[in-house]
Amino acid sequence: MGDPNPKLSPNADTETSPSTSSAPPPPPPPRQQLSLVQPSNKKKHKSIKVFRVFRSVFRSFPIITPACTFPYFPSGFPDGNKVSGSRITGTLFGYRKGKVTLSLQENPKCLPMLVVELAMLTNVLQKEMGNGMVRIALECEKRPEKDKTKLMEEPLWSMYCNGKKSGYGVKREASEEDLYIMEVLKAVSMGAGVLPGKAEAEGQDDEFAYMRAHFERVVGSKDSETLYMLSPEGNNGPELSIFFVRI
What we know:
Structural class: mainly beta
Region (Disordered): 1-43
Protein name: Protein MIZU-KUSSEI 1
GO biological process, one term: hydrotropism
Organism: Vitis rotundifolia
Pfam family, one: DUF617
Shape: globular
Number of helices: 3
């Protein structure tokens, strides 16, 4: 008697060998469930002291004194140590020999509001931070009055670090790796450290460095915004400011 296999066609002349049958591909590994939420549109206004932070995190790196000047800003730098604006969470991260990414969130539990890949290697930024003062300026051209593009929606920026042009900053959508880092750091409000990387997949070093802090976001006009790094009062370390300017 023949084999009554209901899965085989009754018109088939030959049996399909198990070795040549096309088995369905294995299911992909489950992706890590993200618990980050959409940011709200609320802005909390406070008066917070700007100070220097995180010198100890970078103490193992040599100090380099950059020979450069500050870029020109029509409105100038703010006077005094106190500024008023909305507090947001900023994270600088990347492989030590790869480019730094800046991620801005309403708070550590929210999805990123802005992700910008900076024209600077992570280990270079760490050395600049070791010097004790870092000013990053992201500049682009002014748009016509009728153009309603918001400042933080600009896709491309000329980047300066302590007055020295270093290339271009590029706005992009958050990648899976970006979201993974934000998820891992969800419980971290401020701090710095190293996370395991994907050296076997990326072909890069396996140290993924990050630094997270509160930033005071000050809007000067529709063509200028500034982020000032914040830290508990009395903590000494390097100061970081990031300027977004249309000129």
